[in-house]
Structure formats: C-alpha cells, structure tokens
Design a protein that fits this description.
heterodimer; A: 2 domains; three-stranded antiparallel β-sheet; two-stranded antiparallel sheet; 5 strands; elongated; B: alpha+beta
Chain lengths: 354, 359
C-alpha cells in the first residue's frame, strides 16, 4: 500500500524536491553575503540612533529575491492543498479507481491512513524545509526590520508554515471526499483556505493572548494628528514604534480614561477646529507646501501642547518576547484543525461513501 | 454548440458572477466613506502639518479590503488554471471529445466557440474586478508613491485584462499539449508566473525609451533637487525611476543612487588647514572655512556651503533615467496589447495543433 501511494505520488514529489534543491542552491549562494553585510554594518554603527533599519545595507540588497521567496512561501500551503490534497481521494472517486483499491486485501481505513499519512507528511516537510531556508536566509533582513509580528514575516517564518501546510492538505482531502469531483474540490480548497487564513490573522491572532498596556506622552514626533470631521476636531494617533512588538490599538485618553470631547478640542485648538488653517474652504488647495519637514505650523504645535497637558496615549501591544508563544499557538491551531478534518475524513469514508 | 459551451461552463460562470457581485457590494458600501475620510484628513494635512500621522491613519482603514489588490493579481492565474487548462484537457481525459468531433460541428468551430466564449468571459471578469478595485483604491493610490510601482501597475486599470486573456489561452495550450488536467494546471501556473516575472524584469522598462535628465548633486543629502523641489532622487515622485547614476564632469560614472562608490555614500574630509577632500573623487578646488568642520550633530552652514561649492566646481552631476508619469496610459495600453497579442498567437497555435496534430 505504501508502495502504491509512493507510485501514484512519485512524479510530484520528484518535481518538488528538484525545486527545493534549486532554491537551496540560490539561498546558499546569496545568504552569506547578506550576513557579512549586516555584520559589517552593525560593527561600524555603535549607538542605537545610528543603527536604523533604513540605513542598513541589507535592506536594499536582494530585495527582489526576498519578496519573490516570500510570495512563494505564502502560496505553497495553498498549492499543496489544491494539487496534493484535493485530488488525493477525489480523483479516485471520479475515475472509479477506488473500487479496485477497496476490493483488495486492505481495509478502507488503512488505505486512507497510508494516503493521508504519507502525502500529509510530505506536505509538512516541504513547507517546513522552505520555511527553514527562508528563515535562515532572511535573518539579517528581519533583524534590521525589527518587525517580527508583521504580516509578511510572522506567517512566513519559523514553524507557522508547517501548520498552514498540514491544514491546507487536510482541507483539500476533505473537500475532495465531500465534493467527489477534482476541479470543484480544488477551487473550494483555495477559497476556504484563503478565507481561513485571512479570518485567523484578522480576528483570532490579535486575541491569542491578552495584550499589554503601556502609556506614552503625546508629542509631535509621536505620530499624532488631527482630523476635522462633522462631529468636530478629533485626535488621530498611530502606535509608537516598539521594536519587534505588535501594536494592537492606540487611543488618546486622560487620567480618568476619557477621550477628548469635541468641546475641549474646540477650546484648545480653535484655529484647527474652525478649519482656518485649512486654506480656502472646501479643500480647494491640494498641495500646500510646508517649509521643512519639522513640527509644522504654530497652530498645530500649540494644539498638541494643550492636548498633551491633559491627555496621554494608551497603547495595547503584544511584546516581542511573546513571538515564540504566538508561533506555537498559531501552528497548534492549524495542526489541530488539520487533525479534526482528517478524523472527519475517516468517519465519512467509512460510513458515508458507498 | 454555443448552448453546449454555455452548459459546460454555467456553474463556473455563475460562481464567478456571485463573487464579483459580493465584491461590488463590499466596495460600494465602503468606497464613498474612504473618499470622505481622505478629503477630511489627508487632503488638508499639509496646512495642519500632520501629514505623516494623517497618512498612516488613513492607510489603516479597511485593511482587509485593501488586500483585494492581491486578488486582482491572482485572478488571471486562477482563470488560466481553472478555466483554461481543463477546457480541452478535460475532454481528452474523459474522451468526450470523440463524441463532439463526430457531430456535425467541425473541430475548428468547436475550438473557436470554446476559446471565444470562455476567453471573453475571462477578460470580462478580470476587467470588471480591476475596474472596481481601481475605483475603490483611488484614495490610497493618491498617497502611494508612483502608479508605476509593481504593487500598483499590475493590479489596476487595463493590464489585468491582458493577463487574463494570456493566462486563459496558456492554460488551454497546456491542456492541449499535455492532455491531462492536473499537470496542465500546474504547468499553466508555472509558465504564467515565469512569463509575467520575465516581462516585468526585462521588457517593461524598455517599452519606451526612457527619458534622461542631468541634475545637480546635493552635497548634504546625496540626492538631487528636481525642478519641482522634491528632495529625493527624481524629477517627480510619480515617475518611474530606472536608474540614477553619479557622473563626473568628464562623464565618468562613479556611483549610483545619490552616492559615490559601491556603498552609495557621500562624504567629505577636511584637514586642519581647510583643504577639503571629497571621498572617492579627490581634492576640492575650494577650501572649507577654518573651524567650520562638523564635530557632532548637524554640519554648519559654512561647511554645507563649501561642500556644495566643491560638488559644483568639480562638475559632479546625477544622470537620471526615468519614465515620466505622463506615459502611464501608454504603458498600460502597450502591456495589455502585448499580452492579448501573446494570447492570440497561442490561440492560433492551438487551432493548428488541434487540426493537424491531434488524432
């Protein structure tokens, strides 16, 4: 049975192994150069102020290779689900070959277990190897970026791709078992997988652990701005840049935890609230040039000072030290989903398929 | 025959119509609010002096729907895989072509109808999606640097239509040649990505001869000051910059991206007697005023003046090679036409192969 599975799967695994080998060669050739660039830079800049990510030479080097590899690793789990998972059983059902398989000396359960086990393991190994190579290769870039929770980093490094691959594969098999036709199963796998990934990243991942709160004073350099809305002048904030942390929310509140009221904003910043600084009414001016890149006009500065006297910025974030906890939880979620789907497949094949 | 093609294609067409309608509703509901937000926060930001914060806040709106750009990017490939590759390969694999070929319809007509109807549907689907996303994203696009950037150009306006036409016919060809659905689908994906990447890397920059501009080098920032006053290495932020070389008065290339030497840095040394040396170039004709050399923090105005004078006297300039933003629509039309042309050539090959080579 293992031999049959291998025989059916041989061509695909050889193609993928070839691609992985080519990838390894490219990364081994280019990787050490990135490390040496980064080391030389980190040696020559000593203070934190100098060692910014924008001046680190690794940022521009091999940028195309990095984005290309990231895109590949992003779609690899989906491709595994579509091309390995969905046809695995659906194809047998569609062409009727399952009848031959099921009338041999092997039980259905064993037939399914070997197929799921061998190809599923191959899926996880392929995604894991790719992730391992990319994680190693991109480590100087990731160090310079200091944004390990970023969407393009967190889900494309270390162990999360393993979970995605396992889930995508099991999803594809389940879709094939349920739909019983290869092409619709492939399309369904793609749609459900993308939806699951997006939903998880948007609604689940931020809440995996309750975020930490921190308070920051309000200054002009702190990403503060104002927005003139029909309800009056409102304060806009952007989370401050904490290296490798993941900022979830930021808001401006006073000691009692209240946001600035429209009345307060109007009294503190009359010129901004009346739009007097905004040039001709209706926003007719598109490109008003402000001299220099500094704090801007006096009215803005005054407004920030007055708001800062009573209010501060409260930021909730996931600190950098939780990176591995998040990686572990996220991978575990997808592996458990994969196991549940696999269990469902067993049940369905034994009890529902004729 | 039209009825048969429609019957085989019905489910897929209905599913895609449903998805497009869902996208249309989501975009129509959120789009006007984005325009309003843009007009109230980003537009007047220059007079408030809070452009960085306003822009960043604005970009945080509708993060999920902003990802639709990825869908526009993926749509042509998916069309090639799911509509193109199985179109003929599916008939071969199930042997249904034998039934069809023995009816009163000629092979050519059979292929022409299949290619024409589904191909047209592919282009319409990709075009509608691109149109909707282009309209919805316009406030975001006004903030991002250049409409020529790969994350924008490939996902807006006309080019997705060309990609869809090409991907579809590529899928059909793969199916006709390989005669098995799954390998044809995989081959379509690989070939399509290969062609797109190769075109982007080697062909698109040369579709029109780039313009060249000679601009003075700014000694302080290492970047040029264009006529529009932008303090960065381009004439206009929306242009597509192909290269930026630092050249000496004699025309020798000594660096790139606003710098000198392989690291792209720009530096000056000053000796105690005021002799000024430009790193990587040589001694300056002028001297720095005594005591003006920077120790810590920002250089003094006198030193800045001296370094700029040195650059000017040595005649060091920057040669910019760029595609101006005025050519944006030319590039969109050319690229769309080229990919549709690829599609037509492949379709011609498909006809020839089906008539002459297939049993």
């Amino acid at each position: 049975m293992i031999w049959l599975t291998w025989r059916q799967f041989r061509t695909q695994i050889l193609v993928v192994a070839g691609v992985l080998a080519a990838l390894a060669v490219v990364l081994i050739v280019t990787g050490p150069h990135l490390v040496s660039l980064s080391d030389a830079y980190l040696k020559s800049c000593h203070t934190d102020r100098d060692c910014g990510s924008t001046t680190n030479p690794v940022m521009g080097t091999d940028g195309k290779l990095e984005s290309g590899l990231s895109d590949v690793l992003l779609i690899v789990p989906a491709l595994i689900g579509i091309f390995w998972g969905a046809p695995l059983i659906a194809r047998e059902l569609e062409t009727g070959t399952y009848r031959l398989g099921w009338t041999q000396s092997i039980t259905r359960r064993r037939w399914l277990a070997v197929k799921l086990g061998v190809v599923g393991l191959a899926s996880v190994v392929v995604a894991g190897l790719m992730s391992l190579m990319l994680t190693w290769w991109a480590s100087p870039i990731d160090t310079a970026n200091a944004n390990r929770f970023g969407v393009a980093v967190f889900s494309l490094r270390d162990i999360t791709p393993l979970g995605y691959a396992a889930f995508a594969f099991a999803l594809g098999v389940t879709a094939g078992v349920l739909v019983r036709r290869t092409l619709p199963a492939m399309a369904g796998t793609l749609v459900v997988f993308v939806a699951a990934r997006v939903a998880e990243a948007t609604w689940v991942r931020p809440h995996l652990m309750s975020p930490v709160r921190a308070t920051f004073p309000i200054t002009t350099g702190n990403g503060i701005g104002f927005s003139l809305t029909p309800d009056g002048l409102q304060v806009m904030t952007n989370p401050p840049n904490i290296p490798n942390a993941w900022a979830i929310t930021s808001e401006v509140v006073n000691n009692a935890g209240q946001s600035p009221t429209a009345a307060f904003m109007k009294s503190a910043c009359p010129s901004l609230a009346n739009g007097a600084q905004a040039g001709p009414a209706g926003g007719g001016v598109r490109h008003v040039r402000v001299p220099g890149n500094g704090p801007g006009p006096q009215a803005f500065q005054d407004c920030v000072t007055k708001v800062a006297a009573k209010y501060h910025e409260v930021v909730t974030y996931q600190p950098a030290r939780r990176f591995w906890a998040f990686q572990g939880i996220e991978t575990a979620i997808f592996v458990v989903l994969a196991l549940l789907l696999a269990g469902f497949c067993f049940w369905w094949v034994r009890h529902r398929l004729s | 025959m039209i009825w048969l093609t429609w019957r085989q294609f019905r489910t897929q067409a209905v599913v895609v119509c449903g998805l497009l309608a869902a996208v249309a509703v989501a975009l129509a509901v959120t789009g006007p609010h984005l325009v309003h937000l843009y007009d109230t926060t980003v537009k007047p930001c220059a007079s408030h002096g809070d452009c960085a914060a306003a822009t960043e806040s604005f970009m945080n709106n509708d993060r999920l729907l902003q990802q639709l750009g990825q869908v526009v990017l993926a749509a042509p490939a998916l069309i090639g895989i799911f509509w193109g590759a199985p179109l003929i390969a599916g008939e071969f694999e199930n042997n249904t072509f034998r039934l069809v070929w023995t009816q009163s319809v000629s092979r050519t007509r059979w292929l022409a109808l299949k290619l024409g109807l589904v191909g047209l549907a592919s282009m319409v689907a990709a075009g509608l999606l691109s149109l909707m996303v282009t309209w919805w994203s316009s406030p975001f696009d006004r903030i991002t640097d250049s409409p020529f950037s790969p994350s924008s150009f490939d996902r807006r306006d006309l080019v997705p239509i060309g990609y869809a036409a090409f991907a579809f016919v590529l899928g059909v060809i793969a199916g006709v040649l390989i005669r098995r659905t799954l390998p044809a689908m995989a081959a379509t994906l690989v070939a399509f990505i290969g062609v797109r990447v190769a075109f982007f890397e080697w062909v698109r920059p040369h579709l029109m001869t780039p313009l060249r501009a000679l601009v003075p080098l700014n000694a302080q920032t290492g970047v040029v000051l264009g006529p529009a006053g932008y303090a960065s290495g381009h004439i206009n932020a929306a242009d597509w910059d192909l290269s930026e070389q630092t050249v000496t008065g004699a025309g020798r290339v000594i660096g790139e991206n606003g710098g000198i030497g392989p690291n792209g840095s720009l530096g000056f040394n000053v000796s105690p007697n005021g002799t000024l040396t430009m790193q990587g170039v040589g001694t300056c004709p002028n001297k720095a005023p005594v005591g003006s050399s920077p120790r810590a923090g920002a250089p003094s105005p006198a030193f800045q003046h001296a370094t700029q004078e040195c650059v000017n006297k040595l005649g060091i300039r920057e040669v910019l090679s760029y595609q101006p933003i005025g050519r944006y629509w030319d590039f969109q039309w050319y690229e769309t036409a080229i990919f549709i042309g690829f599609g037509l050539v492949l379709a011609g090959f498909c006809f020839w192969w089906v008539r002459r080579r297939l049993s």
